[in-house]
Design goal:
The chain is α+β, with helices and mostly antiparallel strands. About 25% of the residues lie in helices and about 20% in strands.
């Protein structure tokens, strides 16, 4: 009922996404469709019709659903009969649709934190870079915009550049972000983007990825660091209206918290305290491997090294005892014998060898197992991380195996292979 939906909205407002200093609201954008819908309005796990009798109720229902990021309300007089009086919502990460439709109104979730202002931070960086000598007249203003939003994409993706501040009549696109790092519509004019600060655009990439999470950039993965100002203040999951019937069962499963990053100490740990870990990872080849194949063209080599990520541990329910080699490589482990998610390169390789054979494949002619990371640049970085951990893990264990990087194209393709050696001759196999 309308009353229950309104109560859910009030509850969502009282329980903000990132603590008492943050909140979420819906931003209306009339005359645009923000959801990709087919002719039959078929529901999926990311896009589905929602119960509402007006635009206001449609927007409020989206706000009450934790994972609803945008909705479109089609008026009762819409030219498509099947769309009349229909509210359709979508999650974040779906196709970034923003097309004109005078008989529709969309609304976008915007979350903000009083001490953050992520879009304003990136705009300020562009303005400062422009004033520092980017070849632009001092009377102009540069702002940060996601240029990937101007291309047809089936997923929410980001590539920030500095562009001239747009005119009020400029194109509307999903080119800005809120304090979660999620896309928001704003005006953008990329025709003169090259007149603004170029080079070091990786700074915008890092600022967006780090967001309001307070974590180092390399730990602030989507859905984690960007989700709130601090991990300690992140609220528990609020069941949506559709999940109300199963909420009780979720509670009875136990009060186990999901693994998360935690600072090693209540106070900031000095980087000098990590010198032994840095030396160890450098000696094993892990640091050089990650720097060389990082998406941002190994620019870490041209700036002072920052190892603040070593001040965090991956905390959760201990799983098993880690081997000496795994502890040497797994810098994220806490104190104690039991560990959560330790990485043992030899064990990983052994588990791959146990995968079942393909139909018709003989054990003697078994093809090497292949691990795929399918996705965007984040998936590429995960592939880099795995290959570098394997290289360091084999070195730590004194293994006969080694890792060769076969393809490394920034922002596109990365691949490596594990090479063995004959124990008797030392020849590569």
């Amino acid at each position: 009922s309308t009353r229950r939906r309104r109560m859910a909205v009030d509850a969502a407002v009282r329980a903000p996404w990132g603590g008492e200093q943050s909140n979420c609201s819906m931003v209306p954008v009339p005359g645009f469709v923000a959801v990709h819908v087919g002719s039959k309005l078929a529901a999926s796990c990311r896009v589905r019709p929602m119960k509402a009798d007006s635009f206001e109720e449609c927007s409020a229902t989206c706000l009450s659903q934790q994972y609803c990021d945008a909705v479109t309300w089609f008026s009762h007089a819409h030219h498509v009969l099947a769309f009349r009086g229909v509210c359709v919502g979508r999650t974040a990460g779906t196709e970034q649709v923003l097309r004109n439709d005078s008989q529709a109104t969309s609304s976008f979730r915007r979350c903000f934190h009083q001490t953050c202002g992520l879009q304003q931070q990136m705009d300020a960086w562009c303005a400062t870079a422009q004033m520092a000598g980017a070849g632009v007249q001092s009377s102009t203003t540069c702002v940060a915009r996601n240029v990937r939003s101007l291309k047809r994409s089936k997923a929410d993706d980001f590539a920030f550049q500095c562009a001239l501040a747009p005119a009020p009549s400029a194109q509307l696109a999903m080119a800005c972000v809120d304090d979660r790092g999620h896309s928001l519509p704003c005006r953008v004019d990329m025709s003169a983007a090259r007149r603004c600060a170029q080079g070091r655009q990786g700074e915008l990439h890092d600022m967006h990825r780090r967001g309001c999470g307070g974590l180092p950039t390399c730990l602030a993965t989507p859905g984690m660091g960007r989700s709130g100002p601090t991990l300690a203040t992140r609220p528990h999951h609020l069941p949506s209206l559709n999940e109300a019937s199963t909420a009780g069962r979720a509670v009875r499963r136990g009060d186990r918290r999901s693994p998360m990053w935690r600072s090693k100490a209540a106070h900031t740990v000095q980087e000098d305290d990590n010198s032994s870990v840095v030396d160890r990872l450098d000696r094993l080849g892990y640091l050089n491997c990650t720097r060389l194949h990082d998406n941002t063209h190994a620019r870490c080599r041209h700036k002072s090294a920052q190892f603040s990520w070593l001040n965090y541990v991956w905390e959760g329910r201990p799983q098993r005892t880690a081997s000496a080699a795994a502890r040497t490589v797994s810098w994220w482990l806490g104190e104690g014998d039991a560990a959560i998610d330790p990485f043992d390169a030899e064990t990983f390789l052994e588990l791959l060898s146990r995968l079942p054979l393909d139909p018709g494949e003989l054990p003697a002619h078994r093809r090497p197992a292949t691990v795929f990371f399918v996705g965007d640049s984040t998936a590429r970085q995960q592939a880099v991380s795995l290959c570098c951990l394997l290289r360091a893990g084999f070195a730590a264990a004194g293994s006969m195996h080694s890792v060769d990087v076969t393809v490394s194209i920034p922002f596109l393709t990365f691949a490596c292979k594990v090479v063995g050696r004959d124990p008797a001759t030392g020849a590569r196999t």
